[in-house]
Design goal:
- It is built from 19 helices and no strands.
- By secondary structure, it is mainly α.
- It has one domain: Growth Hormone, Chain: A (Up-down Bundle).
- Helix 1 packs antiparallel against helix 8, helix 11 packs antiparallel against helix 16 and helix 11 packs antiparallel against helix 19.
- The longest helix has about 40 residues.
Length: about 400
């Protein structure tokens, strides 16, 4: 993996991968923790049982809306001031916000802090993937980003263990503490050489409007976002609201949302590493993503057929869905490789958060369709049609980037 690097470069690349992986680990822990403690935390704050879904959607949308805003802010900052500024700043913000989440006394406070936490959580993955992609040789970039994702996603599994063994407030305190402790490890990380090189170029850095001024660049950006939509459709609807689906399937014992998330993310950890290996073996990002999209479609069919037969089968389908959705890091890497160094962080940070932010209209459409008496499963299936259709459109129009040299800038 480090064959083309000298000893000093190898040490730096290894440290960058380690820090990015652990940072994403804490990011995922905090990001998914709300899904795991949604019901007990809202119940403790006095929300009636019949309002848990509605209030849960509201708080989830606040978090995802924050990530949408934060993705733009951190992405621009990463291109203007450097990737490290985002790695430090984002983790401070979401760690402090999650410590405060453990002290809320009203749903209103909870909603505001999920917004702030979302803004903080938005910066971690994009900055980490950008930095890893820029310090690794082009023929092994996929290995580095896959390690970051597969290690990081295990944060959801640890979050499930913590949420299941301690009070929901303590779970937030632990997440905030883990994040702040990472700051010590990041001291030895150096800035990307490609960013330093681009800093001396005359091209504008972190100009978000560049993505919209050129039609070709704009549609390329939209296509990258589109291929990630199925990932958060699965997590944001099918997994997060697993108790509601279990009720619709007629289970006597409802699924535990935390367990469903943990199983899904266990599958995602395996899938992310597998998709990276597959892209290296095929020497193609696009073909690897296409195969995983096909697997997602099959996983979706299993969820609504086999998954509705028993609780054990439902949990097995959560694991399968996670495995089939394991191209998250590959999708972000593909997006980062599509654009020049002067806006690469902007793209790599905004794209995953645009996808996460898309959970807002997805869940709003889902809840509206449920209100039309379509039922929970049918409402989810209707939402799936445009989501998967846009993903196929997105992948069809993107260039292959496996062998692409990233040392260039975008011009206005």
């Amino acid at each position: 993996m480090f064959a083309d690097l000298n000893p000093a470069q190898r040490r730096q690349a290894a440290l960058v991968i380690l820090v990015a992986a652990l940072g994403y680990f804490v990011d995922i822990y905090d990001l998914l923790l709300f899904s795991m403690v949604r019901s007990p935390s809202l119940t403790a704050l006095g929300v009636p049982a019949d309002q848990l879904l509605g209030q849960g959607v509201r708080l989830l949308n606040m978090q995802m809306g924050g990530m949408l805003l934060g993705g733009i802010f951190w992405g621009i900052l990463g291109d203007k001031k450097g990737r490290l500024s985002v790695l430090f700043g984002s983790i401070v913000l979401y760690s402090v916000a999650n410590l405060c989440n453990g002290m809320v006394s009203t749903v209103g406070q909870y909603a505001v802090l999920r917004l702030v936490a979302g803004i903080g959580l938005a910066g971690e993955l994009g900055a980490g993937i950008t930095l890893v992609a820029e310090v690794m040789p082009k023929k092994s970039r996929g290995w580095g980003t896959s390690i970051v994702a597969s290690v990081g996603i295990l944060g959801a599994v640890v979050g499930y263990g913590v949420a299941g063994s301690t009070d929901w407030r303590h779970a937030y305190f632990i997440g905030g503490g883990l994040g702040l402790s990472l700051l010590l490890l990041r001291v030895g990380v150096m800035e990307s050489g490609l960013f330093k090189h681009a800093a001396n170029a005359p091209a504008k850095r972190g100009d978000f409007s560049m993505l919209f001024r050129d039609a070709g660049r704009f549609f390329k950006y939209l296509r990258v976002i589109a291929i990630g939509l199925p990932l958060w459709y699965l997590v944001g609807i099918l997994i997060t609201f697993s108790p509601e689906f279990g009720k619709a399937f007629g289970f006597s014992a409802l699924p535990n949302a935390g367990k469903a998330v943990a199983l899904c993310y266990t599958g995602l950890a395996v899938g992310d590493f597998a998709s990276g290996m597959l892209s290296q073996w095929l020497k193609s990002r696009r073909r690897a993503v296409a195969l995983f999209m096909l697997a997602q479609t099959l996983g979706l069919a299993l969820y609504f057929t086999l998954g509705s037969t028993s609780l054990a089968a439902f949990y097995a389908c959560c694991l399968i869905l996670g495995l089939s959705a394991g191209y998250w890091a590959l999708f972000v890497t593909l997006g980062a490789e599509q654009f020049g160094t002067n806006i690469r962080s902007t793209v790599a940070t905004t794209v995953p958060n645009m996808v996460r932010g898309a959970v807002v209209p997805m869940t709003l459409l889902f809840t509206w369709l449920r209100g039309l008496d379509l039922g929970t499963p049918m409402a989810a299936l209707v939402v799936a049609v445009p989501v998967f259709g846009m993903a196929l459109w997105g992948l069809a129009g993107l260039e292959e980037t496996f062998h692409k040299d990233l040392d260039y800038v975008e011009v206005t």
